[in-house]
Design brief:
Belongs to the GSP F family. Helix 8 runs antiparallel to helix 11. The protein folds into 3 domains: 54 residues; 96 residues, Type II secretion system (T2SS), domain F (Receptor-associated Protein, Up-down Bundle), CATH 1.20.81; 246 residues, Type II secretion system (T2SS), domain F (Receptor-associated Protein, Up-down Bundle). The longest helix is centred in the middle third of the chain and has 58 residues. The protein is mostly helical. A 3-stranded antiparallel beta sheet has the order 2-1-3, with helices on one face. It is extended. Helix content is 76%, strand content 5%.
């Protein structure tokens, strides 16, 4: 793609021109390497619908980053230079977007930019956690170990998150299908049967009248209900984008009975894992808390970690700061205190990570084992009640005739 830009050079003069790059991100990196301060950059080409779809589907996945981190670690262990590593991987990876990004990183390295800074110019692929871990590896001279740490962390994070999400897909799908079928029956089937019952002149039981009332409501006002649900969903989606909305919805997420407990353990595992990985890599406690808050992916826990960070800056111990927040369980407070007293906080948090990972796995397994019987009972009661309310009066009518 061709981009036009306006920028200011080192002498303070305005510059404008064009630059060719596969993405805007790569174009910006190329201009920054020329020591230009960009004020405006725009694409001169309009993406077609097909190009937009292909660009969406060619995004960089977590699996791509895990494999990439493993390859980088292996090449560092083989004493290959950083520049050659990124040039080699840029030519080898199948993902076009990732290849372009690695090429841009290679260009930055050739210009003398540190690896962490080169990676930080691509925040959509390499987040703050990843960049800070690499920076710590550069400072300690243990880059191969750092990239292995990153691959392990991303692998664990993906596994535990996907397992929790997959456990919830089935019940949500079943509930949606159930309510969809019930709505269709109330809108299409029940009105025809209710007409027969009303024409018969017989006394209709109260539960049948309730079902007919629901059916009439769906027929007359169903479209408004659908519009209201769509509008409500759109409002929640927009509300969730605001800071207050994220806090409210994320707090609700960890407050739902049983499901909330599962998510709490998931986020605690993520906090302990990211915190321990950074401490073991030489990142300072304050910086580790700040980065953990950015990667936990829950506004409620991010707020807790931000407050803990402020308390630690003010001279508090991590365990005492944790103890002030009910979202942090007693076992995590106690284990953190032991880690601080023994000077092995990173290893203690690694143990906590394993504990909460097992807890999440056990909670998911329990949830999966309960879902099927609960769904069967739920569906059976719903369909059975609806059928009984309709078929019993018809049976009585046939008996009279």
């Amino acid at each position: 793609m061709l981009f036009t830009y306006k920028a200011i050079d080192q002498d303070g003069h305005e510059r404008e021109g064009t630059v060719e790059a596969p993405t805007e991100e790569v174009a910006i990196s190329a201009l920054q390497r020329r020591n230009l301060i960009i004020s405006v950059i725009e694409s001169t080409e309009k993406n077609t619908f097909l190009e937009t779809k292909l660009s969406f589907f060619s995004g960089v996945s977590n699996k791509d980053i895990v494999i990439l981190s493993r390859q980088i670690a292996t090449l560092f262990e083989a004493q290959v230079s950083a520049l050659r590593i990124f040039r080699l991987l840029a030519a080898e990876v199948d993902n076009k977007n990732l290849s372009d990004i690695l090429s841009a990183v290679g260009d930055d390295l050739q210009a003398g930019v540190p690896i962490s800074k080169a990676l930080s110019r691509h925040p959509k692929v390499f987040g703050s956690f990843y960049v800070n871990m690499v920076r710590a590896g550069e400072e300690s001279g243990r880059l191969s170990m750092t990239f292995n740490y990153l691959a392990d962390y991303l692998d664990r994070s993906y596994e535990i998150t996907s397992k929790a999400q997959n456990a919830l897909i089935y019940p949500i799908f079943v509930v949606i299908v159930f309510f969809g079928v019930m709505a269709l029956m109330l809108a299409l089937v029940i009105p025809k049967i209710s007409a027969v019952l009303l024409d018969s002149g017989q006394e209709i039981p109260i539960y049948t009248r309730i079902v007919i009332g629901f059916s009439n409501f769906i027929v007359q006002y169903g479209i408004f209900v659908i519009i209201a649900l769509i509008a409500g969903g759109f409002y929640l989606w927009q509300f969730g984008k605001t800071e207050r909305g994220r806090i409210v919805l994320d707090s609700l997420e960890i407050s739902i009975p049983y499901i909330g407990d599962l998510y709490q353990k998931l986020y605690l595992a993520r906090i302990a894992d990211s915190f321990s990985s950074m401490l073991l890599s030489g990142v300072s406690v304050v910086e580790a808390l700040e980065i953990a808050a950015s990667v936990v992916d829950n506004a409620a826990y991010a707020g807790v970690l931000a407050q803990v960070e402020q308390d630690v800056k003010a001279g508090s111990t991590i365990s005492d700061a944790f103890a002030r927040h009910p979202e942090i369980p007693g076992i995590m407070v106690a284990m953190t205190k032991v880690g601080e007293e023994t000077g092995e906080l990173g290893k203690i948090l690694t143990t906590l990570t394993k504990f909460y990972t097992r807890e999440v796995a056990n909670a998911v397994d329990t949830l999966v084992s309960l879902i099927e019987p609960v769904m069967i009972v739920f569906l059976g009661l719903g369909v059975g009640t609806l059928m009984a309310a309709v078929l019993l009066p018809i049976y009585n009518l046939a008996a009279v005739l």
